[in-house]
Amino acid sequence: MSNGSIFPLRLAEVSFAAGGRAIIDRVSLEIEPGPSTIILGANGAGKSVLMRLMHGLLNPTSGKIDWNAPERPGAPRKQAMVFQRPVMLRRSAFANVAYALKIAGIPEPQRGALVREALESVGLVHLAHRPARVLSGGEQQRLALARAWALHPEVLFLDEPTASLDPSATREIESVIKAFDAAGTKVVMATHNLGQARRLGDEILFLDQGRLVERASVGEFFSKPRSAQAAAFIKGELPWT
Amino acid sequence: MSEALKTAFELLVSLDAKLVEIVFLSLSVSLSAVVAAALLGLPLGAAIAVGRFPGRQVVIVALNALMGLPPVVVGLLVYLLLSRAGPLGPLGILFTPSAMIVAQTILILPIIAALSRQAIEDAWSEYEEQLRSLGARRMNAALTLLWDTRFSLLTAILAGFGRAAAEVGAVMIVGGNIDGVTRVMTTTIALETSKGDLPLALGLGVILITIVIAVNAAAYLTKELAQRRYG
Amino acid sequence: MDLIRRLLLLFAVAFLALPAFAQEKFIVVASTTSTEQSGLFGHLLPIFQRKTGIQVRVVALGTGQALDLARRGDADVVFVHAQSAEEKFLADGFGVKRFPVMYNDFVLIGPKSDPVKVAGGKDILEALRKIKAAGAPFVSRGDKSGTHMAELDLWKMGGIDIAREKGPWYRDTGQGMGPALNTAAAMNAYVLADRGTWISFKNRGDLAISVEGDKRLFNQYGVMLVNPARHPNVKKDLGQAFVDWVVSPEGQRAIAEYKIGGEQLFFPNATRVSKRGLPLAISAWE
Q: What residues of chain B lie within 8 A of the CB of A83, using their CB?
């Protein structure tokens, strides 16, 4: 894919420091569309910060981050992000998704159909007119996915989306993510959950203490990890530092 | 005190025409001031909450400090503005309810702006990442948050109303306490006190407090019900 | 956006409901607390309004403040009671002409227990001297009002330089007549008051009239139209109508008719000269 697509995403020697510490330490990588990418690592490895750097919520303290086609301010975004805790406005579920469309500049008459489509894709149409903030955690996270999906972004970032959810809600979210992946959206997801990484991912980016230590397909990573840290992590033995 | 309650009750029951006129004027003036201050103060508070500009901290501190503006000082400043000898004299609104509204608006604008700034800044810390992720720019975000924090903002607006309805210094100076024109509850209480008619003054005071409590209770209930509904 | 529209509508309705007053003819009269709080204007002004359709809006301050207000052009007419201050006002070009309107008198109010033994006397200067000598609590209005200026004149007449000779017994409150009386009642102190306010005052505590009837306690009220040459915004026709009415036989009669508990508060004494050059009313004080 060339013109129009925002891919590939290139990170060149990107670092992010705060409070004197390097939270991300000279990471260089390229993200291509297609296979779903899992950013794996222990807590504190820098997964969330790396996601936010890629999504543009943070600016690197050194290094460069380039998409293929830089976004114009005011134009609808081609990337979306779902956070660990869903943040909903004090309005109905429907209105929350419609809000995202409004920000993107979609004219009012077109929004209704797009909202319904998005809610259908996550199975929340029956709750469309409930106030979003009274929904359960799993329902809100599904709503967040619907909202992110409504604009049909090229890439969907997910920052540990099921970390606060119970197993059945987690299953629901995972099935929605798989469906989006199958529909062609590039999925980039951070998690520390090995099972989830295996279930949803095609390739693994393994972070340890802010450094990109290993990158491999899911099969290779779990059967033959090349780095000592990865091996230790998979075994559940990664030491705190 | 019991004589005051008795007087208050008698006044209310008889629906004394003068009393009705005074209460109506008090409410019109203070409510108008609240509306004006809200129209100006809410966007101001929102802008400061989500904005990033040099001197922002100084502005916040100043705004908080201005919440404590003494009403009589505001009254004096507005009088100097509106006096024939002053810059806005030709407007001719001194000693009319309009002047009182202007003075009270100035008095409560910092309250509404400072409290809304606080509420929206708290909300901004919760929503910022998500809103920026969706592509909302600061202006958009500020307006969105204004609506989203509407129940907390109601509290801020009420605080402003309470201040306006209870003050006497500003309206006395710019209104002149003119019988039938600019005499409100607080200035009437001051007048009756100075005439030595303490039971009547207290009676009016009881009525004033009751009105303010009623307004606050109504708004509190609204907020509670709405929060339960909207989360 | 819908909310904002609704708010604007509410605002507009509330705001527009108010300047209904602006449609009427009206003048602003700067007057004193003694005329307002005694209820005189409550009695007088409806009569004037019925006759002329002019609404009189009284801003009640001390005489000094009232004259300052008029100097700034914020009043059309002044109705106050401190002759020397009024004459200065005229001399400075802020007034058109001064007409005497009515008089009453000041009275020395004091505790019924009368610690300095001045009650019943007719010599105000003697009473003041005794009060100072004994250091008995005395409340002064201290607000440049007519009553305050009269009080200061009386101290001077009694040979006392009150500014230098006052002590903690002299309580300079900076307040109107009513609040000063409230303070005096609470402190059981002496205070100089105008009879009109005293008669209508309800919170007397343990106070009563101590000294009255001294010629030096005479209290003259005057009315002046503010000079439109200095302040073009002055409503000179409406203002002059008020001045004319207040010194007219009808206005003077209305003043005389005002009583509280059967007692007359103010005594009309306008000396407007008739077309034949004769005075139209004579002060009963002489």
A: 129-130, 133
